[in-house]
């Protein structure tokens, strides 16, 4: 246990060593702009970054700004929270596209019909509905986290035949919600077309209307980066499929078994044979 604590503190120190110089540079740039308001900014300095908003933040109860270490903690959360979950989901999606080549081919043909330039632009993504469907189905079938963070009940609640008492701690199994056979037809199959109905075109990920799946949580406390995560996944999947044909390695049937690490990852990581597509 002591070695684990030592390793944790070593990692935290590394984070500080990497992030603090960037934070100080942004702080210096902000101070320089305030002293010289007519100064012409460089391209990088003219962009308002996440760190800039943290430097401006005032804690009303304590009447102070955030400390450097508090900003490091928030930046680390911002950078790490969207990394592991996104890469895990991407691997699950690509594994299913390898396992089901007809889905991959349908996606490729739709991308090819929309994207005329070599580089895929953000505007292109909005015109590829099957791409959005593939990403949503990946999140439904293989949510990177199966359980939501613990919540406390503020008053006695009756759910079906059960009474959940006030101040009880509850943990929601988000994966099971997305696999509910009363909501989803054949829920354990990978079928992006289920999201292509009129309802699927404007599928509500926030849970405001109803909750059919919740890979990012739901309500006011859902993941604030869910839209960015979906955008990243669409970019990655679109580029990987448009540039390469993905095939299973000879003799490999693509094992979709899962195991729990920080996220729910593939028990046997994806191995695939890539072929560059002709232009």
UniProtKB/TrEMBL annotation:
SUPFAM superfamilies: Cytochrome P450. Keywords: Heme, Iron, Membrane, Metal-binding, Monooxygenase, Oxidoreductase, Transmembrane, Transmembrane helix. Heme binds at residue 223. It is a single-pass membrane protein. One of its GO terms (molecular function) is oxidoreductase activity, acting on paired donors, with incorporation or reduction of molecular oxygen, NAD(P)H as one donor, and incorporation of one atom of oxygen. The keyword Membrane applies. PROSITE patterns: CYTOCHROME_P450. Coiled coil: none annotated. Pfam families: p450. The keyword Heme applies. Signal peptide: none annotated. PANTHER family: CYTOCHROME P450 89A2-RELATED, FLAVONOID 3'-MONOOXYGENASE-RELATED. Belongs to the cytochrome P450 family. This is Cytochrome P450. It comes from Salix udensis.
């Amino acid at each position: 246990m002591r070695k684990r604590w030592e390793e944790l503190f070593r990692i935290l120190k590394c984070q500080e060593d990497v992030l603090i110089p960037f934070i100080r540079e942004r702080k210096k740039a902000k101070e320089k702009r305030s002293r010289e308001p007519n100064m012409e900014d460089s391209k990088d300095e003219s962009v308002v970054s996440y760190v800039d908003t943290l430097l401006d933040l005032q804690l009303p109860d304590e009447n102070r700004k955030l400390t450097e270490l508090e900003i490091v903690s928030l930046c680390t959360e911002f950078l790490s929270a969207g990394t592991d979950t996104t890469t895990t989901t991407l691997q699950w999606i690509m594994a299913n596209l390898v396992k089901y080549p007809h889905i991959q081919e349908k996606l490729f043909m739709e991308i090819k019909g929309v994207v005329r330039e070599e580089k895929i632009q953000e505007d292109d993504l909005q015109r590829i509905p099957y791409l959005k469907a593939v990403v949503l189905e990946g999140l439904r079938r293989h949510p990177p986290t199966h359980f939501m963070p613990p919540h406390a009940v503020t008053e006695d609640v009756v759910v079906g035949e059960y009474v959940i008492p006030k101040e009880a701690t509850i943990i929601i199994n988000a994966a099971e919600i997305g696999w509910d056979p009363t909501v989803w037809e054949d829920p354990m199959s990978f079928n992006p077309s289920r999201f292509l109905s009129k309802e699927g075109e404007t599928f509500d990920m926030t849970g405001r209307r109803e909750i059919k799946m919740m890979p990012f949580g739901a309500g006011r406390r859902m993941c604030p980066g869910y839209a960015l995560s979906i955008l990243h996944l669409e970019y990655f999947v679109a580029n990987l499929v448009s540039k390469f044909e993905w095939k299973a390695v000879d003799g490999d049937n693509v094992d979709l078994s899962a195991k729990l690490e920080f996220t729910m990852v593939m028990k046997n990581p994806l191995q695939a044979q890539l072929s560059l597509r002709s232009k």
